[in-house]
Amino acid sequence: MRERFRYEYGAEPLHLIAVVASLLLCGYALLRITEIPGGGRVVIWLVAAALLHDLVALPLYSGLFKLTHGAAARAIPDRASMLMALNHVRVPAGLSLLLLVVYSPLILRFDPDRYMDTTGIGVDGYLGRWLLISAGLFLISGVVYAVRLRRAA
Mind listing the pLDDT tens digit for each residue in 89-100? Predict the structure, then answer.
């Protein structure tokens, strides 16, 4: 019976239980969010973020993946070496982009007066720090890549 379930569902029963539990938890969180003042704006923001991801970001980074994969495949014939090189660029780029998305209001200085009034902290220096962190991520990744290439040789 378990094999039949796995064939029909495509995964183990534990996976289905985990998915249902996570959906119930998300539903409960949405109910709690709508009870607080301004919670409706949070729900609108979540829906907009999901739509923006699915309609803009997913096609963008899928196309970028195909572009980089094709260029790397032409430059590095060995598949394992190509994937290793790509991953040493993808990981710091992804982390840098994640930091940019999370801190974009501060990095791009959207409404700095409101932020200062709310927190008492200025927005000066966020762009420089983000650039330094991004450079550090790429530097660390490059050093690790060089060490891995040295060991392989």
Answer: 999 999 999 999
